[in-house]
Design brief:
This protein is of the alpha/beta class. It has 2 domains: 273 residues, Aldehyde Dehydrogenase, Chain A, domain 1, CATH 3.40.605; 189 residues, Aldehyde Dehydrogenase, Chain A, domain 2, CATH 3.40.309.10. It is built from 16 helices and 22 strands. The strands form 6 sheets. The protein has a 7-stranded mixed sheet, sandwiched between helices. β8, α7 and β9 form a beta-alpha-beta unit. α2 packs across α8 and α4 packs across α5. Bound molecules: NADP nicotinamide-adenine-dinucleotide phosphate. NADP nicotinamide-adenine-dinucleotide phosphate (NAP) binds next to α8 and α9. The site of NADP nicotinamide-adenine-dinucleotide phosphate has 28 residues, from α8 and α9.
Amino acid sequence: MTVTAATELSERELALLAEVPTGLLIAGVWRPAASGKTFDVEDPSTGKVLLTLADAGPEDGAAALDAAVAVQDEWAATAPRVRAEILRRAFDMVIARADDFALLMTLEMGKPLAEARGEVTYGAEFLRWFSEEAVRSFGRFSSSPEGTSRLLVQKKPVGPCLLITPWNFPLAMATRKIAPAVAAGCTMVLKPANLTPLTSQLFAQIMMDAGLPAGVLNVIATSTAGEVTGPLIKDNRLRKLSFTGSTPVGRRLLADASQNVLRTSMELGGNAPFLVFADADLDAAVDGAMAAKMRNMGEACTAANRFIVQDTVADEFAAKFAVKMAAMTTGRGTEPDTKVGPLIDAKSRDKVHSLVSDALADGASAVTGGAPVDGPGYFYQPTVLKGVEPGARILSEEIFGPVAPIVTFKTEDEAVALANDTEYGLASYVFTQNLNRGLRMADRLEVGMMGLNAGVISNAAAPFGGVKQSGMGREGSVEGIAEYQYIQYIGMPSPHNA
Ligand code: NAP
């Protein structure tokens, strides 16, 4: 299998790239790194350089935090309606440029254009949702039980935040943090992933154009993440760290954050089980499996990582699933027929292949796929493996690629034990036509989110997040803004006792 696609950038692609700011955004000004250093951003479908960005060093990180700290008080005092309207304008502006944002994400990350458009809709929705939440952040006023005092509870912005985002959803992971921080009245420093920073650069300019005051959002792309963010996390003017990324990096950042007892939100890795019971609508389960596995080429924290299928329907499920997987066209995301883009880099593709090779060596068989794709870029065949043994490495690590291992069970208890046999607890999917069983599974699965007969669960109005080593805190929904607020209580005597 080979991929043939145009590898030269079109005029439209070049024109869009020319619009992306290439500097660091500090105190409202795009500027070069203090060291003058730069780094390249590549197209993963060709390996060619798309753009060269300023490469922040520790002194730039310090300048970005200085800028965020300088305007924190003024920003916190800005009327919620003003903050809301900036977010709402930004929503309109992103939607007006949906095609540009989609193309930019496809270029730097590789996902097919149709999926990138879906991410624009999803990512922009956080701007609209939190523009609505900004003006509905209520406290309380109550009497103490003995009636002698009055209790006033108010919510205040936590203060300057450091936001660190991964490469897989370049727009949505940024808006899911920036929008609630803006709504709550926090200033911030964003460190986007070095593999896909271009979307954040263009989006930050949109926020400025929408009226966000200088210094509220600072953006420091860098090729040396730890060196730049380490001193910021130790700086006691920083009040919050919100991180989305892998569990090993999250653990390290949590240890650093403990020095300052920093507020943290951690959206970490996943190992989602996808359970199919014999009483499921099998065609619906296959459609759900396609969505839960193949969104973003499997490079999603919510991606179904383990297909746990009742033994009596496992062969039929595997056969139907494999037919759909094999029919997917692999190619550069900008090609109209493409359904599966490249993986993000050679390391990711090689890791996926080593997981598949290990499973095959241990006796699993490939119903379809099972190998990398020749050609430029980092493509991997959509793959379905059956006969995978419980305990196999591929069931315990995040695959982050278009590979679906199937393991079978006989009883519900066995299914639950298999599903919970992981350090992760982010997403899960259950297919059954028995509603009682479905709700029972929600009680029994150790996860933050469950799709019941649904393969897609992400929604700006839903509380997104995990348990166990998938993290802590929630993004989106009414919980999302609370991550950027602290509660202050004021006690006063009851007016009747005064
Ligand atoms: P990653 O390697 O952990 O990187 C995530 C971010 O952390 C990037 O911006 C990265 O910068 C930065 N980083 C890496 N090492 C750091 C350090 N020592 N100090 C400070 N920052 C550091 O994860 P990834 O490969 O980008 O993303 C994939 C992972 O994210 C998967 O595990 C996936 O499940 C998880 N994820 C979770 C969610 C969720 O909501 N739970 C959503 C999406 C993805 P560089 O880019 O410069 O390395």
